[in-house]
Amino acid sequence: MQSQNTIASAMPSQLQKDDAHLVKVYKELFDVLPADSPEILEETYRLRYQVYCLETGFENKDDFENGMETDIYDSQSVASLLMHKGSGSIAGTVRIILPEELSGGREIPALTISEELRELGEDGLPRGRTAEISRFSVSKKFRQRHYDTHIPGIEEDAGKAESQRVIPHITLGLMKAIVKMSIENNITHWAVVMEPALQRLLRKLGIHFKPIGPIIEYHGRRRTHYSDVDSLLNGIYEERPEIWNVVTECGTLYPYTGDK
């Protein structure tokens, strides 16, 4: 692997300017807020209801008469909201479901869905340090259309420059929240269930989860993925350093370790 200095010296000056600009624009647009109070959790559940029940039909809206989508895994999860500073609106939310050993709860759902994931040994997927990325949701106000997915969508609106500018920042803001929550809870590995279209979109951003097992029917066509935190973040740095800067707060949350 290249060292951090080698990669930095190989980047054109314009790319380095773009790196700084992307971080600056993100900070101007969004704040990540921990969902650590009843009031903020309600905002999270209402946005999930909008996305998962009303827009994608992933869950039955009639099961949630109070307009808040919740499930049995919320009690063993930590969640965050992404706030748009200019409007004060909630742009998105995401949670990570903590492993059974840390939370005293259930086995993460990805392990119940994927036999191939279950077959990974402790070296490949340490059960006590693997969290599931879940309920990755973007408000309809910030997108024109959505992917019907276990992690509902982040879209690019080719007709509007402002959408092209803002929407990727929502994705990166939620990824930053995932990194922050994972570090705070000693998580070293991630599992996630998503549809092929979303995987392709994340790959464009240099975010590479490893697919495992076949595409299955699970509220639509989806596939299980996983990664260790270190490899995924190092991979972003080496492929898209400008995105790594946003997701890791320029290495403050998680330093680049690929040169070790």
Task: Report a brief summary of the structure.
With 260 residues, the chain is of the alpha+beta class. The chain contains ten helices and seven strands.
Q: What this model shows, in words?
A:
By secondary structure, the protein is of the alpha+beta class. It contains ten helices and seven strands. Helix 2 runs parallel beside helix 10 (241-247) and helix 9 crosses helix 10. The radius of gyration is 18 Å and the shape is globular.
CATH class: Alpha Beta
Q: Helical segment tally?
A: 10
For the secondary structure, the number of strands is: 7
Helix content: 40-55%
Order of helices and strands: HHEHEEHHHEHEHEEHH
End-to-end gap: 9 Å
Structural class category: alpha+beta
Could you tell me the mean pLDDT?
83
Low-confidence stretches: 1-15, 145-165
Strand order of the largest sheet: 1-2-3-4-5-7-6
Write down the Rg. Answer: 18 Å
CATH superfamily, by name, is Gcn5-related N-acetyltransferase (GNAT)
Indicate the CATH topology.
Aminopeptidase
